Structure to design on (331 residues):
């Protein structure tokens, strides 16, 4: 009798233990990012994104540049939750309209990617994962490193326009305040210096530059480079609606390489912050190492992009999977 009770007890507790473990594994699995999260729910998801990013790149090369900037502007504001993609409607104030988002472009092509996904797997792949994976694929199109990105992010149901200017540094901020902002989301100095290497592609509008040129020229700017910048931005008060800009990196403007670091060492940094990274004793050693070694830059860039993309994700039952990345779902 006692043996039977004992056996019965151990069998049922074993079953109980197994079920608890399964539930635990299931819930942990659901609430964390993982590689190939859509393997069962939408097996072609990553391939569809890659195909669309590649097609868009061949039509409009600068879409790839935009996907890289989108990753930064979305993930550093709360998390990679596609809060950036929401448009102003029904009480939502779009993050895109903030002064910090000046010059952001190509949002309409996010829809091209989302539409292709919705056709194959409706309401399955989050806009947040589109932000992350399009950046991963955009980085590759621009000659940058391969990043092993996890998926399973969910979309926010609100915009964070109200905290945006506390979340995204300004181009005139000090090196130490920028470092501490990145530190607060788990990105160290080396990683922060690597991420700024994204300014090896793309452009800066004159409104973000003229204070370095007029009324007096910032003495840290190389004189020949200053001539180029003044040619691109001939007046101290550029019309914000005119598309007046200078290239981030004149050498290889569409390649994500270490020219950004070579440029700042040669006093050809575009933003005040870019240039200051080359004189601050905390960042200069990394700038020098990255300028000397593109592979090292790429390794650090890939590491830091991963940290940025995994900061504070919205997972499990939180948030939603938006149908249209521009709007929260109406229930
Ligand atoms: C403290 C950090 C940063 C500041 C203050 C900053 C600021 C800026 C500014 C002012 C522009 C020019 C916008 C314009 O006039 O059109 C710009 C462009 C850009 N930024 Fe940053 N940025 C920072 C970090 C990053 C990071 C971490 C990334 C990506 C990993 C990034 C990617 C880009 C890209 C790709 C562009 C070019 C966009 C285009 O050509 O459309 N930036 N950034
Ligand atoms: Ca966000
Ligand atoms: Ca470049």
């Amino acid at each position: 009798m006692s043996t039977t009770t004992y056996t019965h007890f151990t069998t049922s507790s074993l079953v109980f233990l197994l079920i608890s473990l399964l539930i635990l594994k299931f819930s942990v699995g659901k609430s964390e990012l993982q590689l190939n999260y859509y393997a069962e729910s939408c097996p072609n998801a990553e391939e569809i994104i890659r195909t669309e990013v590649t097609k868009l790149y061949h039509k409009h090369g600068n879409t790839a540049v935009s996907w890289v900037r989108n990753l930064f502007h979305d993930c550093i504001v709360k998390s990679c939750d596609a809060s950036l993609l929401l448009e102003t409607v029904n009480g939502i104030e779009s993050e895109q309209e903030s002064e910090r988002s000046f010059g952001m472009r190509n949002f309409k092509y996010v829809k091209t990617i989302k539409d292709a996904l919705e056709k194959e797997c409706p309401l399955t792949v989050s806009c947040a994962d589109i932000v992350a994976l399009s950046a991963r694929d955009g980085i590759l199109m621009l000659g940058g490193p391969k990043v092993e990105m996890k998926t399973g992010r969910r979309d926010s149901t609100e915009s964070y326009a109200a905290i945006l200017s506390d979340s995204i540094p300004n181009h005139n901020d000090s090196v130490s305040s920028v470092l501490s902002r990145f530190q607060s989301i788990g990105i160290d100095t080396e990683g922060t210096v690597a991420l700024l290497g994204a300014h090896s592609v793309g452009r800066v509008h004159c409104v973000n530059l003229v204070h370095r040129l007029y009324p007096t020229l910032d003495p840290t700017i190389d004189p020949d480079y200053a001539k180029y910048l003044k040619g691109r931005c001939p007046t101290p008060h550029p019309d914000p609606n005119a598309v007046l800009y200078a290239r981030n990196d004149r050498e290889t403007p569409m390649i994500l390489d270490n020219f950004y670091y070579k440029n700042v060492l040669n006093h050809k940094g575009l933003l005040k912050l870019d240039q200051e990274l080359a004189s601050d004793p905390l960042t200069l050693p990394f700038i020098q190492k990255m300028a000397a070694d593109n592979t090292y830059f790429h390794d650090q860039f890939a590491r830091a992009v991963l940290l940025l993309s995994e900061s504070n994700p919205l997972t499990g039952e939180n948030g939603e999977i938006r149908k249209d990345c521009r709007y929260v779902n109406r229930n």
Notes: The pocket of protoporphyrin IX containing FE (ligand 1) is lined by residues 65-66, 68-69, 72, 102-103, 105, 169-171, 178, 195-196, 198-199, 201-205, 208, 271, 273 (CB under 6 Å). Residues 2-30 form the longest helix (29 residues). Residues 1-5 have pLDDT under 50 and may be disordered.
